[in-house]
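Researcher: Re-running this chain for the archive, since the previous output was lost when a drive failed. Same request as before.
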Amino acid sequence: MGIAMINPTLITRLPAVRGRYEAGYLLSRIAWFKVGGPADVLFSPADAADLAQFLTHVPRDVTVSVIGVASNLLVRDGGMAGVVVKLGREFNGIRVEGTDVIVRAGALDPVVARAAAEAGIAGLEFLIGIPGTIGGALRMNAGAYGREMKDVVVEAEAVDLEGRIHRLTLADLGFTYRHSAIPDGWIFTSARLRGVPGVAAEVTARMDEIRRKREDSQPVRSRTGGSTFTNPDGPNGMPRAWELVDRAGCRGLVLGGARVSPMHTNFLENTGDATAADIEELGETVRRRVFEMSGVTLEWEIQRVGRKAGEGV
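Model: Regenerated structure tokens:
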């Protein structure tokens, strides 16, 4: 899709860094949905200090965004204006201290779960069922199978848009259901997670069970963006998002190249030739049908970012 960048000369205005800039990087290359236009500039910092240096000196009129592995992200077809920060392998480090696991924000959640298991640390098994990075998990208080990040985080570190580094306690993070209180734009760089003593073989067995349950109930081999909608607030017994979608008759619903998963109705799939617009419109169609059927307004859990095709070009 030949979509022009909004600001093709932006890269010439950016500060010198030790990391790497790439102009016009097509984000569909890394997004799990395999859709989305280009970033005007993609920045891969060398380390946290390089990231802080960049944020200190980037021109204030330049939009800065961050993505991890784009597992819970829908990048619109017009791409993303400004600079998109992607934490690369330099942010994948994992270190164990007793029952604490110190992780950099680019580490994949399942990799962290396996590292904890190998060290005989229990309590982090749920991470095996969360596709994405620790940075993304911190941003949205990710959870699965009865546990959330709020149950294991001791502290985290983030860099604000002025380049200042903040050490954040659990209270500072302000975790609620699928949300943190940290300002938009702050970029997580690391975290300390705490488990409890366990037996490596037993922890691994629990992770294997979680993985099997996930594979049996979710379209893990499809092009998806994870859970589409958050479960609505309400009293015990309130239907979950997938139940509401199912009751509204949306299982298997197709729009263009996008489909509501027949396997799990809280997942949208790219069946092969979907655009981001197809996926977003399908999601909005589902929300409308659920509201008409139940009076419940489903909220997006997937983050929708960027501009629609033709916007600002």
